[in-house]
Target: TCAIM protein
Amino acid sequence: YCFVRLCLDKILLQCVLQSRTLSGADAINALRPFYFAVHPDFFGQHPKEREVNENSLKRLNGYLENLQKPGFRSFKPTQLTFYVREREPNSSNVQESFSASGFRAVSFTLHTRDLLSTVLDILNSCSLSTEHVQSLNSQPHKEAKSTVNRPIKWDKTYYSFTGFKDPEEELEQAQRVETTLMSWLDDNEASAVKKLKKSLPLRKELERLKIELSHELQLSDIRWQRSWGIAHRCSQLHSLGRLVQQRPEILKNVKGRTVVFTDRSGMSAAGHVMLGTMDVHHHWTKIFERLPNYYKLQKRLLLLEDRISQLLGGIQVIYIEELQPLLTLEEYYETLNSFYNKLRDSRLPFHPRSLRGLQMILESDRYAPSLHEFGHFMIPTVCDPAALQWFIFAKAQEARENLKRKEEMMITEKELIDTSMERFSLDRLYKEPSVSSAQMIDCCKRLLEESLPYLQGMHLCISHFYSVLQDGDLCIPWNWK
Model:
């Protein structure tokens, strides 16, 4: 009787799953509203949110790819966090919070074994409509939903006899037991070591290419905006090396500068030469030819910053790459010029040099001024001059205290990083830009209280989630348990 019932249940389950199967292409189409809401390219002016969404999308794509693999059985519930562009009513079963920039942070856990259920879970978690999924599924959404909730109870003897793992038991255990640092390292240390060893030759090649090109072009530094893999970075340096061989005369203009490989070509607001990774040598050549004109514009930009400073009592206008969008020199100049004209016409009564030692950054996506924990003012370009004057006067003393605290925090952070590297014999310890210094300090202090032999010789990245990167770097959340 048990055997017959098991067979019938198995046939029924297969029929249900076949009726609810989505193809990979259907899943991508169904998730279009989600990708539009969280795609990193739409967060260009918000580095923290962009970084979190970029990393979460990588993990989501890996989860979806695994679901489409033939014979895929084992999986681990995956917790993801995304910043969503628009505000929607909160879902009752999803953890949400709002970032300083006003975006909604949505956290949810994927644990389904088929594409349709996964797609529906993602859309529902982000409060996005699922009506369009009906046309992609062979049965109406309501019927599919009722099928998902249909309780199919397999006799425990089936798992004892076959040796298969009980998915319900696995899911309950995963939900009951929170991932801890030690358990995660137990499961992933071997994989990270294997990937790290494989990447070592490429890492040496990358370092060699970087040193050679920096010396040949007399560069200040070579950087990357995104966390591309080692192989990708080597390829970009090889491309730059070929251009050096083909057009050495135009590269003399880059002397003393920093080259940044990023999404577009030009000169950044910080004065770095940007090389778009999707551009061909022709575009790079044009950028190097235009550098003398960029340098002239940069001088005008610095003069504009000085004029704004004079109108605001000596407060220094700065640009912080980690906190501000990656603007071109032209875009930043227009922003400064518009703000300067507004200040000049308002004639605010700031006493000369009364605010010396303070700092401010301009933001085009805010409407109210604020004070950052590191002591610099975050001023919207559309801010009302009278409101700006009152805010700066009211927060000046607090800003000076925050600036002093920033210096102390930076020293503490560096000391803890050095101590942690020595204690655990790490080859490298770093953090993602979206992790603050306060979070890094808290993380390192707690790490130093543990015994972690797994970390010897590893590359450890402090992030917001657990992950093993393609080149063997270990990512752990700063608030690990």
